[in-house]
Amino acid sequence: MIDIEIDPLSPTPVYQQIRNRVVEGIARSELRPGDRLASVRTLASAFAINPATVSKAYELLRTEGLVVTNAKSGTVISPAPAADRHSTAHWEERLRILLAEALAHGRTEQSILDSAARCLDTLSPVGRRP
Fold this sequence. Notes:
Blueprint: H1 14-27, H2 40-47, H3 51-63, E1 67-70, E2 74-77, H4 85-104, H5 109-123
Antiparallel strand pairs: 1-2
Helix pairs in contact: 1-3, 2-3
């Protein structure tokens, strides 16, 4: 299990912060297929937030195919995340909007590429990137 940190003062909703931290944990290989996430009640209690907030984050992760939930084992990292055409198209659309935002704010293509490389470096486990 990874440490999840949230910022209650952030403009990003808490459920989205939880989702984002789990996705980052998977990207860094801190969370691997079959790893169990904290229960909804445990995580809600740890952050003194409504359990519905944690449930919303976990439901988003389930919809994205990154976790599976069952009564016996709880919520665990999916053994095989979905990589179908729909998820690829959805991911590319989100990336396109983010890139458009950067360009609209005056970022150059090179500065965007440099930022992307720095972000990949912080997310990639040692040895993943050439």
